[in-house]
Input
Amino acid sequence: DRCYTVGGKMFAATDGSAAKFSVKVSDIAFEVLTETHRAKPAPYAARFKWVMFEDLSALDAAEVADWLKTAHELVAAKLPRRQRVALGLAG
Output
């Protein structure tokens, strides 16, 4: 598996073959994506508002980039201020 982190906190992951893609999303995005069946609640992480896309190759590259950017921002925003400053994420 490949995990993507910021400040030691995971915000996205793919399986070993990079076919499945799991990502942290906002509360609203979680509801929309799971209710429309575009994505499934991510196993073991749905309670933290993570979704899993079954086929990464079926997603548009720009959409994936946007999901990654948003997930990074959501997780980074919860880091302690000192850590965000050290990572160059806060002024």
Observations:
- The beta strands are 2-6, 9-14, 21-24, 40-41, 50-53.
